């Protein structure tokens, strides 16, 4: 009897569920995280960081694919709407990062800066201002302090006011700025002169201007570029030619590349 009882016990143990959840655990897994809870805040802050770091549109959080992804990772987390990110978490992230950067740059004694004007795809004008410095551990650092919407006319005086305001916003003393690097635009050159700041012309910009001018002044380069543009255009307008180009590259055992158009703005 003892032997039979032992066998029965072993048989029951063999068919007993392993790692079975309790009713309480099952109920807890079915419940969503409370919005006031630590876990919900951590996940929401991580999404905010992802949006800011990768420059994603805020409405990505309302996409079906994104919600499916998050639900797969953690079914208990419910993604808030984009208004929550645009009005609460992203402004909060901006404030915390601003405070951290301000704390970091309080220790620097001297710095240089670069600035440039540019327009978005919607033709909205912005000014970016970046500082460069060596920290106390002798490591080169740079911080883009702002990309500021600047709808005013881009006169020398207005640009000078905007740059002074940028330094003031970050509690930086213009006397500690050893040099400002810009392009050769007459307005930005004038603004540096107004502020009596040391200015250095951007080497990359000057190199671009030199190459562009040299190409335009050389008829041989113009003729060669014209031929190249026609070749690229013929492939761009024909799927058959693109297909044959790919096959030829494969047969020759070389990397597969597409033909690119020449833009004088990107040389």
Describe this structure in words.
The chain is an alpha/beta fold and 267 residues long. It has ten helices and five strands, in the order H-H-H-H-H-E-E-E-H-E-H-E-H-H-H. The chain has helices spanning 2-15, 23-30, 38-53, 64-73, 82-105, 156-169, 186-195, 203-217, 219-236, 239-251; strands at 111-119, 125-134, 140-149, 177-182, 199-201. It has a five-stranded mixed sheet. Strand 4, helix 7 (186-195) and strand 5 form a beta-alpha-beta unit. Helix 6 (156-169) crosses helix 7. The longest helix has 24 residues, at 82-105. The radius of gyration is 30 Å and the shape is flat.
Q: Can you give the mean pLDDT?
A: 87
Shape: flat
SS-based structural class? alpha/beta
What's the SSE pattern? HHHHHEEEHEHEHHH
Number of DSSP E strands: 5
How large, in whole angstroms, is the Cα Rg?
A: 30 Å
Give the proportion of residues in helices.
40-55%
Task: Quote the beta fraction.
Answer: 5-15%
**How many helices does DSSP assign?**
10
Distance between the termini: 92 Å
What profile does the largest beta sheet have?
A: 5 strands, mixed
Instruction: Walk across the major sheet and give the strand order.
Output: 3-2-1-4-5
As residue ranges, the low-confidence spans are: 12-16
């Amino acid at each position: 009897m003892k032997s039979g009882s032992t066998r029965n016990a072993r048989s029951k143990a063999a068919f007993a569920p392993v790692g079975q959840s309790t009713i309480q655990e099952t109920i807890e897994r079915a419940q969503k995280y409370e919005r006031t809870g630590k876990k919900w805040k951590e996940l929401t802050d991580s999404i905010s960081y992802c949006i800011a770091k990768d420059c994603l549109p805020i409405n990505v959080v309302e996409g079906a694919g994104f919600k499916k992804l998050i639900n797969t990772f953690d079914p208990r987390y419910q993604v808030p709407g984009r208004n929550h990110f645009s009005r609460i978490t992203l402004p909060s992230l901006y404030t915390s990062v601003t405070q951290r950067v301000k704390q970091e740059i309080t220790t620097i004694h001297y710095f240089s800066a670069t600035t440039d004007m540019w327009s978005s795809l919607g033709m909205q004008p912005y000014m970016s201002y970046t500082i460069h410095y060596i920290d106390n551990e002798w490591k080169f650092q740079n911080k883009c302090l702002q990309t500021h919407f600047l709808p005013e006319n881009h006169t020398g005086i207005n640009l000078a006011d905007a740059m002074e305001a940028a330094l003031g916003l970050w509690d930086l003393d213009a006397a500690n700025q050893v040099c400002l690097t810009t392009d050769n635009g007459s307005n930005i050159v004038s603004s540096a002169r107004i502020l009596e700041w040391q200015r250095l012309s951007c080497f990359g910009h000057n190199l671009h201007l030199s190459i562009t001018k040299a190409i335009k002044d050389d008829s041989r380069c113009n003729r060669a570029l014209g031929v190249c543009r026609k070749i690229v255009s013929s492939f761009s307008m024909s799927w058959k030619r693109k297909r044959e180009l790919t096959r030829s590259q494969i047969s020759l055992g070389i990397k597969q590349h597409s033909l690119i158009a020449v833009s004088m703005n990107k040389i």
